[in-house]
Design brief:
Layout lengths: L1 E5 L13 H15 L3 E6 L8 E4 L11 H19 L5 E4 L15 E5 L5 H7 L6 E4 L2 H4 L7 E3 L19 E4 L8 H11 L3 E4 L7 H8 L8 E3 L5 H10 L3 E3 L9 H8 L4 E4 L4 H4 L6 E4 L2 H9 L5 H11 L2 H17 L7
Parallel strand pairs: 1-2, 1-4, 2-3, 4-5, 5-6, 6-7, 8-9, 9-10, 11-12, 12-13
Helix pairs in contact: 1-12, 5-10, 8-11
Amino acid sequence: MRIAIIAPPFICVPPKNYGGTELFIAQVAEGLKQKGIDVVVYTNGESTVGVERRWMFAEPQWPIKGEVYDNLKDLNHSSWAIADAAPSCDIIHLNNIPGLPLSRVVRRPFVYTIHHPQDAGLSEFYGYFPDVEYVTISDFQRAREKMARMRTIHHGIDAAAYRLREQKQDYVCFLGRIAPLKGTHLAIEVARQTGVPLKIAGEVQPLYREYFDSQIKPHLDGKLVEYIGEADLEAKNELLGNARALLFPIQWDEPFGLVMIEAMACGTPVLALKGGSVPEIVCDGVSGYICNSVSEIAERLRHLALPPRQVRAYAESHFSIDRMVSQYLDLYREIAAGRTSAAA
C-alpha cells in the first residue's frame, strides 16, 4: 500500500515552530513508515520529514500574504500533488481544502482530516464530496458535521520527544497563538489573581498585532508576566516541563488543542476553560482541571498537587503516536478493502 499525504505548502513538515497540522502530518507519515507502509508527503522543499518528500515550491512561506494569492498557491500545489500522486498511490490523504474538488475527477480514494473548527460554509462545501472519508480530530468536532463517511481519530504525540520534569519551578505558562480566542489576556489575569509568574510563548500573527500591543504588551514586566517569543521543540520542553501548569483559557470551540497533550507529556497538568474538545483531552482531577471561570483556574492553581508521573502516564496511555497511526492505518485498510462504514 502506498499513501500520499498532502500538506499545505506554507510551513515545513515537521514545523520549526508554529504548525500543529504540519506536526501531525510528520508524525503520521513517519509512524506509517515504521509500520512498513510506503508514504510520500507533498510539502515544501525545506521540509525534513523522514519519508519520501516531493514539492512544487522550494521554500516555506509564513505568515501567508493574503487570501487570494495564497489560495491560488495552495490550489496550484494541491492540484499538482494530486496529479503526481494518482498514478502510483492507493490512497490520497488531504489536509488542505483546495484538494477536495479534485476528488471528483481523480479515480482514487480520498481521506480528508478536518483541522479547522466547524464553519457553516465549510460544512456545506464538504457535503459536495460525499465519497471522501472525513476524519475529525475530536468527537465535539464530529458532532457538528453531517458527512456520511466520518470518524474521529484523536491526535497523538511522541512522548519520547518530551521530557518528564518532576520538580517544577514557580511559574505557569501559556503556549499558543497570541490571540483573543486563545485567551492570552485571561492567562495574565490568572497570574494577577494568584501572584504566580506567567511565561508566554507563541506567535504574534499580523492579524492580532493590535491585540498583543494593547492587551498583552502593557503587562510584560519581566517578573510577573514575561513573553519569550516562539518556541521550538527544545524550548517547549523547557517551558512546559518546568511549569507548574499550562494555562489554556480558551474563548472558542477548540477542535483539539495539541499543546495540552504536549504539556501532559512533560508531566505538567492543564488548567483549562471548558470549550470544544477540552473535556476529551483533559481528564479532570487526573491530568489537569476543567474550569468554568478564570477565578476557578486561579483557585485550582493555588492548591494544585497532581503528580507529574500520573499526568504523563495519562498522556502516554491515551494520546500516543502508535494509537493514532494504527487508527489511520485501519482506515486506509478498510478503504482498500471496500469495508468503510457510514459512521465509525
